[in-house]
Amino acid sequence: MSRKKTIDRVDLYTATEELILEEGYSSFHFKALAERLGVARSTIYNYYDKKEELITDYMIHLLARSVERIDDTAHDPEPVKGLIRLWSRYAHIHQMLQIMPYIDQEASDKVKENVRRMFQLFMEMKEKIGVILTTGEEATKIRQDVSLSTRIGFIMATVQIPIQGMTEEEWVDEVYTILRDGLYTKPTDTR
Amino acid sequence: MSRKKTIDRVDLYTATEELILEEGYSSFHFKALAERLGVARSTIYNYYDKKEELITDYMIHLLARSVERIDDTAHDPEPVKGLIRLWSRYAHIHQMLQIMPYIDQEASDKVKENVRRMFQLFMEMKEKIGVILTTGEEATKIRQDVSLSTRIGFIMATVQIPIQGMTEEEWVDEVYTILRDGLYTKPTDTR
Amino acid sequence: MSRKKTIDRVDLYTATEELILEEGYSSFHFKALAERLGVARSTIYNYYDKKEELITDYMIHLLARSVERIDDTAHDPEPVKGLIRLWSRYAHIHQMLQIMPYIDQEASDKVKENVRRMFQLFMEMKEKIGVILTTGEEATKIRQDVSLSTRIGFIMATVQIPIQGMTEEEWVDEVYTILRDGLYTKPTDTR
Amino acid sequence: MSRKKTIDRVDLYTATEELILEEGYSSFHFKALAERLGVARSTIYNYYDKKEELITDYMIHLLARSVERIDDTAHDPEPVKGLIRLWSRYAHIHQMLQIMPYIDQEASDKVKENVRRMFQLFMEMKEKIGVILTTGEEATKIRQDVSLSTRIGFIMATVQIPIQGMTEEEWVDEVYTILRDGLYTKPTDTR
DNA sequence: CATGAATGAGGCTTCATTCAT
DNA sequence: GATGAATGAAGCCTCATTCAT
Prior knowledge:
DNA-binding region (chains A, B, C, D): 29-48
Domain HTH tetR-type (chains A, B, C, D): 6-66
Organism (chains A, B, C, D): Bacillus selenitireducens (strain ATCC 700615 / DSM 15326 / MLS10)
GO molecular function, one term (chains A, B, C, D): transcription cis-regulatory region binding
Distance between the termini of chain A: 79 Å
Oligomer: homotetramer
Keywords (chains A, B, C, D): DNA-binding, Transcription, Transcription regulation
């Protein structure tokens, strides 16, 4: 039919993520993206009208995928540990979400719509975590005397903890240990 | 009142913080700053050659002040709770630090120097927290079987947990409760 | 129905006119035209290399048709009124001619040739009007003490007069009345 | 106080008009304007944020001035002739107004406001002409049996009539003659 | 022919920054 | 010091146009 494509969505997404993680969001322009992809800048405009549309499309894709994975952790013998492990693997999502405030949401209607969708997915994610914390067998072991939002927030905040020279699994173990038993030694242990 | 035609550092810092917290770092230009201060844009250049110098100067000032406060928490009957409380109060520091990756560190030598200093202060902060966690009376109650960096990271991560419709003190209580005892009910409690 | 994937000249002309009258000449691009026609932009290039060629071709077609109609008015019992009526009907020609100055005549040789042809047709039109004004029975009633070009210009200028809430025929009557007898009441009438 | 200005409003207006009359509105960019003024393109942005704002400001200025002049013609012994003469002198206004449909009114709020203002001035102009045609001594000589809007439209349309190798005053005479007495010789004259 | 893909040219804008007063 | 003026660099964006299939 026509000329072969040199860029496809996947390439775009990959280059977008690389560019942002390596250079920061402030370096994310179609100019830089085009250089990385080896195409003319205007070529990218045939795919996306605004950089904000590209980046939010990508973030939705990323977020959607990780929301799906949460379901898997629900069947883990230790679901909360599963979540932590999921976090460690999708750490870059967190970094990507961090740039949200820098995205010009007024750039276009599509961007606004995308941001709305991301917010939705984010809610969904929290809800799924909430379900794990309040229903099912695991929930019987989890304290219910602290507001759900704080419990969810706590789990999500752990993504911020630096890995600092240990393996992924070591990090998961350590974080899970504190999250489960607390920072303090147990009074019962001292008996 | 008529606009002040002279600026002082405090005004600069105040305007800088306000601008960034209200509009985001991407809106932080000398242009916007000048408008907010009611002076000509070029006037700011009499004080700062680069916006990066201004912002890092300000962040150092902010960071230095909060590092000082950590010492106070050490004398708290519950030092870790004190840290949490400090966090909730200095939440905007966290927001400010978040923009670090967006600062062009190559802007000038002074900027580089400032960033170095900030890193130092950050280390200092962690160290002070480390001291609280490993020495003194409180330390005897804190688990030492998890790497210090993870413990510190955990405490610092709590700043991310949303407050969501509770008072500051309620939030502090909830967060401290989980941090201290863990997310799970204690086996001993079920006995 | 599915979009036609083949274009013919008539469609091109229709879409061209619609696009220009609805959106203005500044919105006349092959991009917009292609969208309206439901074909790929590059397809249009199989017919026209330049948008200027298309538009001038179309204008020639339009102009030629209206020049033909002038002959009909010559046999009207009131030829000048016939011209006015012709005007009211072909008002969009006037709009189309208005965009002439915005056409880049240097776009191609064909464009230059087309513009030349349009000028010719325009001359022809004026000439035909001139003939009506200077020969034949009607001419005996028309004042010859004013330069022909001004007389012709006067008639052609009437196309600019707004219709403003009357019927076409009312407008024709009013305009013709003034054109024939003048704006002033006649001294003879007051006698 | 500060550096001497190299461009002022008048220069801007002059260059704007020249550029448009010589090259057409399609060539009216800040780039071209800057070249003509011998300044950097960005310099113009210190005066006007959008080319549409500049051009509409200029057109308002132009229109306002010519509206004022209408009052003068009212005291002319032959007010309608005065209007015609005014037209011939301000012919370029007409050309400028012709470009109105090409101005992107959505460019900014200021543009929208300006366009509103122009419309207002235009109405005012018509009204003033209407007053001349319907009140005062002159009005007694003017036919009132044709709608006012057509009479006004007629006068305004005369600006379109080409001058074609005569002096301004000759043109004014010819146009006024036809406008006053009509295109046809009077029946009384043939008696 | 029709088309999807790629591109270059050109215009738009925003700021940081310098400079003369 | 404070300021208004001017500017360059850099990013944004839209099309016309070419080309291979």
